[in-house]
Amino acid sequence: VQLQAFGGGLVRAGGSLRLSCAASGRTGSRYVMGWFLQAPGKEREFVAATGWSGSSVAYYSDSVKGRFAISRDNAKGTVYLQMNNLKPEDTAVYYCAVALWRNSWVAADSGNYDYWGQGTKVTVSS
Question: What is d(CA 36, CA 45) in angstroms, rounded to the nearest whole number?
Answer without folding.
Answer: 5
